[in-house]
Structures are given as C-alpha cells and as structure tokens.
Amino acid sequence: MANDLRAAFEHACRLAIDRQADVVLAPGDLFDYETAGPDTAEFISRTLAGLAPIPVFIAPGNHDSLRPRSPYFDEWPENVHIFTSPEFESRPVAGMDCSITGIAHAHRGITERLLAQPIPAPQSRTRILLFHGSRDGFRPSYKENVLPFSDAELLAQDFTYCAIGHYHSYAEITDEKGIRAAYSGCTQGRGLDETGEKWALVGEIDAEGRVTLERVEVAQRRIVRVEVDATGARDSADLFARIDESLRQRARTQDAVYVFLRGLLPAGIEIDTAAWASRQPCFSATLSTSGAEPDYDLDAICRESAASPLRSAFVANMRERQAAAVDDEERRILRDATYYGLFALDRRPLEPRDVD
Amino acid sequence: MWIESIDIHGFGCLVGRHFEFPRDRAALIVADNETGKSTLAAAILAGLCGFPRRNTNDGRRMLAAFEPWNGDAYAIEMNIVADAKRLRVERDFARDKFVVRDRDTGKDISARCDPDLTAHFLHLPRDDFRRIAFVCGKDTPSLGPTGGIQARLSALVEGSTEDTSAELAIAALDGARYTLDTGGPLLIDTAIKRLTQSIDAARHKIDALEADLAAAEDEVHRLDDAQARLEEAGERLDQLDSDFQNALQIEREDREREVERAKKESEIARAEAKLSAIDQRRAYGKKFGSAIALGGVLIALASCGLWLAQAMPVVPGVAGALIGIAVAAVGAVHIARSQFIDADDRLRLEHEIADARKTLTLMQTPDASLHPPLQRGDRGGSRSSSDIDAERRRLRTEIDELNRTINDLERRVGARVDAYRTEYPDLRDRLHALERERAKAERFGRAIAVARSVLTEVAESSRRRWAAALNRTAAAILPHLNPDYDELRFDDTLAFTVRHIPDNRILEQSDIDACLSTGAKDQIYLAVRLACCEELSRDEQIPILLDDPLMTADDARFASGLRYLVETCARKRQVIILSCSRVRHERLAGEAWFGENVQPIELGNLQGCSLA
Fold it and tell me: Using CA atoms, how far apart are residues B182 and B163, in angstroms rounded to an integer?
C-alpha cells in the first residue's frame, strides 16, 4: 500500500505539471508523523521539487502536525511553502493577484473553532484559504475533531475558495455563488471508509471568482466494497458463484476487494474465506459474513403465533420497536436483540454478532 | 407417566424386593417406621431420575447413603409407561449403568433418553420433580427455587411443544458471556470492565507518550535557545580571539616602544654627558684663558705702573707692559678659542638630544596613524591580553557547557521522538482495537438486555395465564385439605397468598412459613404442589409420591385429605402413598371411597431398616 500511496502522489504531481497549474495546494496529512521516516520526507520533497517553478503550499494537518523532528522542519525546495504558524497567515503567489492563507496544526491539532471569527483576508483578487479541519455534521466517529467549522462559518469567510483536508472522501460546500470549498479526499484509499475512486482536484477560478473543480482519479488501486445477498443460496458453491459474479461486474484485477454478505445465510453453508480469497485474481480479497443474518424467517415467525406464541410475540414486539427506533444504532441493537432472543429461546449459543 | 412396578435388587435396606402398583387406583404402602418405607420412596425416585451427578457432593452422599448393606447388587429395574411407550428401566448404581428398553420392541433406546427420566418425559428435572411431586412429610414444606417450574408452566401455557420458555431463554440471556482475546468467557459487564481497564491503560501510555512528546517540544525550544546561545558565544569567542591577538600585538609593540624609549633616553643621557663634558672643557679653557689674560694684564699694568713710578726703567717697563699685553692677548685668545671647543660635536649632540626628545615625545603621545592595525578596539578596550584570555577561557567553558546541554537535549529529544514513533502506532492501533472490542461488547450487552427485557415483557402474559390457571386449580384443592383456608393465589413468580376464612385475613407466603401451624402449613403446601402437578400434567401425567403426607393433620383433615388424594387425584394420575399411620388407615378401610380407590401394598417387615 505504501507504494500505492506514493504512486498516487506522483500521479497527482504529474497532473499539476500536465495541466500547467499555477499553484498546488496540500491541505495536510501528507504523511503520518509517527511512521514517516527520512525516506518518506525525501520522497515528498523530491517529488514537490519536480513541480518547480509551480509553487506548492502545505498546511500541515493533525497527522503530519508540527512536532519535534517533523520532516517539515527540514530543508524543503524553494517552490514549497509550509505554513508553520498555529494562526492563519497569508502568502502571496508570485506573479499573480492571488494569496494563500494557511495554518498549521501543531502537536495533536488545533481544536478551537477558529472559523467562528472572521479570518483576515488579504486584498488580492483571488483569496484561497488552505487548512485541515472537521466539517460539522460529517465527521466520522473515528476522526479527530480538529479545527471544527460549520458550513455557515466557512461561507461567512471572505475567501474565494477554501481547500480543506481531513476527511477522506470528496465533498464540496456551495452557496449561491457556486463552489466555495471542497475536500478532495485522499488520493489513495486505504480502508473501508475510503472505497471507490480517489481523486486529486484540478480547480479553476475565473476573474469573477467562480470556481470549477474537476476530479481526476490518481489512485491506481481502488478499495471496492461489494455486497452480496446470501439469501436462498443452495450451498457454498452457489454462494461463491454469486460473489464471483458480483466481483466480475464491479472490481478490477488491481483493486482490493471487500465482500460483505447480506441477507439470510442458510444454515449449514460452510464458507472457507481463506480458500476463496486465495482464488481471487484481484490484488487482495476479503470476505465478511458479519452482515448476513441468521436463517430465521422473521415474517414466518410473526405469522405462526399459534404454533409458537412466545417466539411470535417476541419477534413482533422487537419489530415494533425497530419500526419506532430513532436511529440506525438503535435499530442495529434491536435487530441483534431479536436474534439473541431467538438464539436463547432455541438454546443456541449466544455469540456476539460481529456486525461491522 | 405411570410406574407399573419396581424390582429392587439392592437399595439400602431393600434387597430382592418386587412391588407392583395398580393402574386404576392409588397405591398405599402402610408400614411402621424404620421398615424401609422412605427407602422405597427414594428407590422409586432414583429409578426415575437417578442420583445427582457423581462429581457433586450431593451425588456422592446419596450414592453412598443407599448402598446395600450386605454388599448386594446396587441396582433397580422399573417398568413404566411414558410418552405412550411401555419401557423397562435398568439402573446399576454400582456400575453407573443406565439402560432403557422399549418393552414392546425390546430395543435399547437409552441413547435417546436423558438418564433423568422426569426431565426427559415430564420436562421436570430431578430437583423440580422432587419439589412438587415427591412429598415427604418430614421435610420442610417450602418449594425452594422455582425457576424451572415457572419455565415449564410458561412453556405449557405458551403451547410450546419444546422446552422453549421465556424463563429458560431469560436465564440463557442472563448467562450470556463475552470472550476476550485475553481470556473468558466472562460476564459481559466484566468483559466491558476489563476492556475499559485495558483502554485506560493504553490511553495512559499514550498520554505519557504525548506528554513526553510535549516535553520534547519544550526541549526543542530549549535546544533552539541553546544553539542560538552557542552561536552567539562562538561569535564572541571569535571576537575575543581577535582582540587577544590585537592585545598581544599592542603589548609587543608597547614593549618595543619601551625599549626604544629607554634607548633614546640613554642616548640623550649619553649625549647630555658628552655635552656636559664639552661644556666643562670650554669652561676650563675659558677660565685658563681668563687667568692668562688676567696675568698678562697684571704684568702689563705692573710694568706700566713701575715704569710710570719710574721704579723701573722704561725699557723693562715697556717691555714688561708689552709682555703683559701679549700674555693677556694670549689669554684672550685662549678664552675665545674655548668657546669653540668641540663645537661640531656639541651641535651634533644637541641635535641628537633634540631628535631623541622629539621621538620620546612622540612615543608618549601615540599617533593613530602610526599603528593603524593595532587599535585598542571597543571590545578589547584597554584590556590586557591576560584579561581577554581569561574571558576566552570562561567563554570556552560556557561553550563546552552549551555543547553538553545541546548534546543532552538532542539525545533526549531523539529518545522521546524515537519512543513516540516506535510505541505510538502500535498503542494507537491497540487502543482502536480495544475500543472497537468494547463497543462490540457494549452493543452485545445492550442487545442482550433488550432481548431480556422484551422476553420478560412478553412472558408476563404467559405468567399471568399460568398463575390464573394455578389459582383455579388450587382453589379446588385446598378446601379438601384444609377447609379453614381458601383463595390460594399465585403471582407470576410462583409466590402465593392464602385467605384464612375465619378471620378473613390474607396471608403472604412469609406469614404462612412463619406463623401457621405445621399441619396447616403442610396442607397448604400440599395443595400448592398438587396444583402445580395438575397444571404441569397437560402433556404427560406426573406421578405423585407421598411419604407420610398428612402425618401432621388431625384425623378429620387426614381423612378429608386422603380421600381427595385417592378419589380425585388418583383418577387423573398415579398416586403412591407411603404411610406409617396404620391405625388411621385401618379406621378408614371401612369407608367405601377407601375401598374403591386404594390398593394397599405390603412392604414387609424389615428389622433394623432405617432411613438414610
């Protein structure tokens, strides 16, 4: 994967040269401070030097924050400017009526809502804000809440465009003028929260400050999540045939594939995930059965109230609760509870359902 | 279920005994105390259920208690009818062997049978069967734990054909365990607690690493400061080195000037000495010339005087005057010549002295143009080279100290950063894994709790239904056993209340246990047990074994109770009564209901037999 990350980075830099970019913006997390060695820093530095004379602006994020012995404290090519202040500061782009305003995270990152106040913007015609922050309402639970902001706070800033880093998927923030800010997402997926195409953004800002963004895929390898319904599978061969058919349609050989079984998994089907994975032609393959439900026909159990009144009443009660549940988590708990209750009634072992 | 007969090869005091029980009426075994009556009851129970497992204290104790006295075979055979099958049960307690055969086919069906036949056919494990269907008048009447009985009541009222019941399911949910990588299975709360401890420990380590890294950041600032001070000290040292060289040069030149001045002063002294010698010589010449001149004048004057006094002839006088004048002239010449003695030397000496003095004056007032590279600079000032050197040494010591500090800080910062980079990724991954695991355990726990809660809620209706049914059944039984009480009411935990008719008082179970007479208490609990048996006999009739069930009752209630047992209960299910009340039974033997519903069975008289 490390090679894939580097290849995507190089691809993004080549894209800047090919498109004759005026400026390259990197809103943080170019590397992980904990694991990035001199080799990584040297690679990034060398690749960015290859962009010269295109200026590169880097606003360190929470993962590549300014900490002792950070590679950002080393020598960098002349065309690379790294923001090192924990307060917003502005730099002009040479030869253009354009300025970049950026900020650096230090240590574990800035957690204040700095965008709640107006950020001083230079007088240049095109004013770009570059930072690494958390958009309210979209933060995955595992992401740290750094430099949080709301759309309203961001849109109230006097900047032509904001290049934002932190979230690993593309997202744009717009108002009546059009695009005002965007997360490019990461350039190469690494996990299940980073599936599908991964892009670098090629942006253009016209004289009136209108922003257009083109997403260009730079990752050579995608993380592909495929859901396959196991309901009604006759046997494991039938099930694997379904999976393989889904993969043929949705995954390429260079991709990393995660297959999630859904639906009702008939009892007695043995799934040798390791053997299946070893047969796959793609870069890597993982099969998860955690999403498949036990082979209970809950509708039938509800109907069969005379034959099994307790089970029927239990399942019906659980379904009513699920229907009234206010969020997915509660629904998931209730769904699990339904199966645990049935397991208990049927004297089946109570194992925690490993649902992702 | 019906017990048709029992062959006791050896069980306690009973050896080689055969008993047959009637199919159409109650069996009554009347025997005196210590004759093996309770042993027979225990043998029937052991034949049906076996003993508790041998690896338990109860199992070992009971197995030993009924071991035949004379080393006979420790075995029982029974013929029973259960689940519409005629079965032969063979138990060899000594060899721990258990065989069940279908008497119609002769097939061994042991593999399909639970050795606890009441659990298998009646869904009542040994302990629960004992609680409701095996009444021993000498035991305490309390039912004990009734969870299993409640479960079976629920299962029956729910119409389940299996052993499924809310109580068992709830018990299973209560017993849910969570297995951690590090151990288990554990109670879910315990697992969550352990995970939380591990998370806290990992967080603590991460916090320590973060604190170390923060300390490293402070040290980096100190390092920057030390490096700036080192740079400044280096510059100061360079300046001091330069000043030192300048000072050395100046001091060298000062020393040279001192030598030069001394030399000049010596030259002046020598020149002045020479000058003085010249002047002395001149003065001497002048004095000598003056003396000669004076002598000449005196001679001339004396000669003239004598001549004028005519004391002397003219010629000698004139001659003398002329000689005097000549001598004076010589003296004058000598004086004149003395002014020019060593005149060149004197002039040269005077020039030399003047030049030397001028040089000295110049040396005493240094001219900047004379020593342009040797300015006593602002830094050096007028300090001596030794002062500067001392400062240089102090600065070098300071630089050494700064270098040591820098090295130490570099080493410490490096160690902290290395430790962070080495340990943090693993710790972070471990923390995330633990947090995921805890979230999973918590989700498991919450789902289990929800399932339990809903099952309990759903089961409430079942419980209410079987409680109502029990109430009806008990209400029909109790007046036969004790007419002073009625309204036997069960709640959904199988706890019950009863009304004392004479004073219309409702008694809680605790009141019954604590306050009622032994007889009343036994009769109420017997009614409870019979009601339970009635309700639990929907699929398969439960046989009832009563060992001196009414021994604490008065004669009237004994008769009434016995009549209900043999006349009503025994119509529905098998009733086996063992009693030592021979007189009471002989008195009732003349009653028609007794003769029609009771078959007396002789136990035989065993001397010395006693209950274990």
Answer: 35
Sequence-distant (6+) residues with CB within 8 A of B337 are B285, B289
Q: Work out how many CB contacts closer than 8 A connect A with B.
A: 121
Q: Give me the amino acid identity at A80.
A: V
Architecture field, domain B2-146+494-601: 3-Layer(aba) Sandwich (3.40)
- Strand B2-8 with B544-547, pairing: unpaired
Helix axes of B518-536 and B126-133: crossing angle, nearest 10 degrees = 120
* CA distances, A349 to each of A288, A298, A344, B160 (Å): 20, 19, 7, 20
Contact at CB, A306 and B159, closer than 8 angstroms: yes
Q: Note whether B263 and B453 are within 8 A (CB).
A: no
The residues that bridge with B601 in the sheet, in sequence order, are B29
Determine which of A301-305, B96-100, B291-295 has the lowest per-residue pLDDT on average: A301-305
- d(Cα A233, Cα B159) in Å, to the nearest integer? 33
- In the sheet that holds B485-490, the strands lie side by side as B485-490, B496-500, B505-507
Q: Are residues A18 and A74 in the same domain?
A: yes
Q: Percentage of chain B with pLDDT > 90?
A: 35
Phi and psi at residue B73, to the nearest 5°: -60, 135
Question: Looking at the 3D structure of chain A, how many domains does it have?
Answer: 2
Which residues in chain A are contacts of B166 at CB distance < 8 A? 310, 345
Phi/psi at B598 (5° precision)? -125, 135
Q: Answer whether A107's CB lies under 8 Å from A138's CB.
A: no
Query: Which residue of chain B comes nearest to A322, CA vs CA?
Result: B450
Q: Smallest CA–CA separation between A192 and chain B, in Å?
A: 15
pLDDT at residue B380, rounded to an integer = 46
- Of B146, B149, B47, B137, residue with least CA distance to B88: B47
**Its pTM surpasses 0.80:** no
Q: Which of B461, B523, B533, B534 has the alpha carbon at shortest distance from B498?
A: B523
Domain end position, chosen among A217, A246, A280:
A217
Mutate to test the interface with B, among A328, A334, A350, A355 (most CBs of B within 10 A): A350
